[in-house]
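fyi for ur records
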Amino acid sequence: MYEKETQGVFIRVLPDFLDDQSDPVGGRFMWSYTVEIENRGEATVQLISRHWAITDANGKVEFVRGPGVIGEQPVIKPGEKFSYTSGAPLETPSGFMSGSYEMKLETGGSFNADIPAFSLDSPYDHTSVH
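which gave:
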């Protein structure tokens, strides 16, 4: 479990390797990740957009930007939580993801809530450190 809080928005991420959707011989490794966003602040927020950096084991970075998450731009009131599950493929057996959500405050203004960097590890990664 990976966790980070920015201006009262607490984000928790749980990645999971999907062996049944992966093809190691073909160079396709698939993960799901569940994100829980909790509003611990005093103002209602709305998730406007997402910004991801997905890095594979070779250092190749793919940037993903877009409105909302899973087709939604959820409004999260103080004390409420919103969660969703999505997925990410890699061509290598490991990598990591990081990013942020643009959050709009009902009181005006916006800020970027940091998503904690999280590791994408599979049982096919045989990296050794000397």
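The chain has a mean pLDDT of 95. thats all i got for now
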